[in-house]
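so my prof wants the structure for this chain in the tokens format not the other one, which i didnt know existed until like an hour ago. anyway here's the sequence
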Amino acid sequence: MKTAVIAKRFSADEETKAGRATLRRQSLLGRFRAEPLLPEAGAGGAPLTAAIGVMSFLAAIALAGLLLILAASQEWTSELERGVTIQIKGADAAEIAAGAAAAMKVVQSTEGVVEARLLTREETERLLEPWLGKGNVGEYLNVPALIEAQLSDELRENLGPLEAQLKAAAAGAVLDDHKRWRDRVFAAARSGQALAAAVFALIMVAAGAIAAFAARAGLAANSEVVSILHLVGATDDFIANEVQRRFLVLAVRGSLAGLLLAALVAGLVVFGFRAAGGAGYFLPEIRMGPGAFAILLIVPVALCLVTAVTARLTVLKALSREM
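here's what i got, hopefully its the right format
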């Protein structure tokens, strides 16, 4: 019986002060192995472990989403910042070809252009396939010519002269530095990161609320045990330490299980995205390296800290009201 365990733990030939001094000298591993004051089942057992596991999974998914959005947006915007696109329009294919040749000469003769390439018609048609479908771009369509150019930082700061030279060489030339796209990508990335961070914070709040409820329920269910502990000389701090240790063990079990499941799901999503060719056309490549998975260890650490501290504070507050 629980009372027998309590009696065995606290009774000795010496006074209870000596017993409490021995308990204080227990190693961390010994305290984790010691029999908990709260039972395995009930409010402080399997249900709490399962709840923490679910929250760990959701928090890890939210954090992984934040990391994926951050990596994808940085990759995408870095590519946009390095280059510009020059579009040459015309009334017919001959005019477009002549304008493209003239624009290409201007680009190649401009100081600060690191690299420039005129896309073939086949490459331009592939860019239109997501909207027009494969094979639907016929010769009757005057598809504009595209020039991709990589510029130096000095040239990017002042594109006015280059744009004027292009206009003079080819009336249908349009220079796009992707600024509007970059701004939209940054705005979308910030919104996604803020949402993921809010979800992570809410999960931590929910973990604290569940831990507080479970701690109060455990105290109510074991009120006799708490009374016996007080009778044999246990302090509120000792009882709070025991409950904190118990909730920490449960949090470690649940959070690690949820983290492993979330890492598996995140890995499958990244693999499926690559296998489906999702990084083609306009979407950046989605990847999660070992460093990203290491960052996910924040989830079990945060959950264990929130659960253990909340349980301790809840117990101390509840016991102080009873005095």
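also thought this was worth mentioning. The first strand starts at residue 83 and ends at 88.
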